Amino acid sequence: MTAVIARRGAARRIGLAVGVGLLMVTAGLFCMALSPLPGVAFGCTVVLGVGVSVCTGHLWPAYLQATPMDQLGRYQSLLVFAQMAALLIATVLFTAIAGRLGARWSLALCAACTLVTLIWWITSSQRRLGSPS
């Protein structure tokens, strides 16, 4: 998916593409949490991976376009730091949850967090565009 985005360019409606990507991530995670068979879980993982590619493949170019050229290195460093810090916290948190409650609960809670992110994305996008709440 990332190669397709790189070849064809980002979608004109970046906000919609990011929303679709987040929806796919949420669906893939919930599907994996509920999956009864390894083959079904594999299919869910594919949906999850495509969703991550769609989301990040549209967010990064938008972020880079909005960054002042003389500050590009600093902005990229800050973004990577924020991603790594969030990854560290999430890894510890969801591993602890998986250890206590099981992998299904950990995946389901991760999906719930992604769903909250999707809801935030939709509502904040509507506010930025001046749409009624």
Automatic annotation (TrEMBL):
TM regions (residue ranges): 14-34, 40-63, 75-99, 105-123
Keyword set, alphabetical order: Membrane, Transmembrane, Transmembrane helix
SUPFAM superfamilies registered for this protein in UniProt: MFS general substrate transporter (SSF103473)
Database matches in InterPro entries: MFS_trans_sf (IPR036259)
Name of the protein described by the UniProt record: MFS transporter
Protein species of origin: Flexivirga alba
